[in-house]
Amino acid sequence: IEAVCGRSAVSYYRERDQLVKDAVEKLGVADDQLLPGIDKVQARLTRAEQELKKFMTESARDVVQSLVEAAQAHDGVSVIAGVVEARDMDHLLALVDQVRDRAQPAVVALGAAVNGKAALVVSVSKEVEHVDAGRIVRESSRMFGGGGGGTAQLGRGGGGDPARLKEAVEAVREAVVGALAG
């Protein structure tokens, strides 16, 4: 149980009153409309987030299509590598999955700058042999000063300088082509 009394109570309630006044001023509503004003702002934010999600989905569809169209076949396997825009690692993983699923059998390597750091994902279709995504990511991530690893089917890496992503992705492509050839 806590209690505030005397001058502390007066000071506390003045601070709270000022906080409400500041919120009312920022929202541009009357004092008695503070909660409905907050509800309106939350509704606008929800609509904006839904529109952004829709835009990102449409944008991702275009990115996936262009990557699939740019695929190069090596020994019957589509090899797709590039640097894309992604908001986080989950988004990058989703893009990789979409591209791989549309270009089966495939090896897909995508890099992106995420929160100022490099991120790299390599995904290999189950039927593709002789390509170890984890090993390739571990080696290629060193090019941008990061680290990584994973399994034969999925490798993830990150950290370091995103400006060096393009050459790391190209190194992945070369390593994949080499593994498929020999």
Strand order of the largest sheet: 1-2-3-4-6-5
The overall pLDDT, averaged over residues, is: 91
Estimated radius of gyration: 25 Å
Parts with pLDDT < 50 across at least 5 consecutive residues: none
Distance between the termini: 74 Å
Structural class: alpha+beta
Shape label: elongated
N-to-C series of helices and strands: HHEEHEEHEEH
* Fraction of residues in β-strands: 15-25%
Strand element count = 6
**What's the helix count?**
5
Largest sheet: 6 strands, mixed
Please give the share of residues in helix. 40-55%
Characterise the protein shown here.
By secondary structure, the chain is α+β, with helices and mostly antiparallel strands. It is built from five helices and six strands. The protein has helices at 7-27, 34-69, 89-102, 133-141, 165-181; strands spanning 72-74, 77-83, 106-114, 117-124, 147-150, 154-158. A six-stranded mixed β-sheet has the order 1-2-3-4-6-5, with helices on both faces. Helix 4 runs antiparallel to helix 5 (165-181). The termini are far apart.
In short:
This protein has helices at residues 7-27, 34-69, 89-102, 133-141, 165-181, and strands spanning 72-74, 77-83, 106-114, 117-124, 147-150, 154-158.
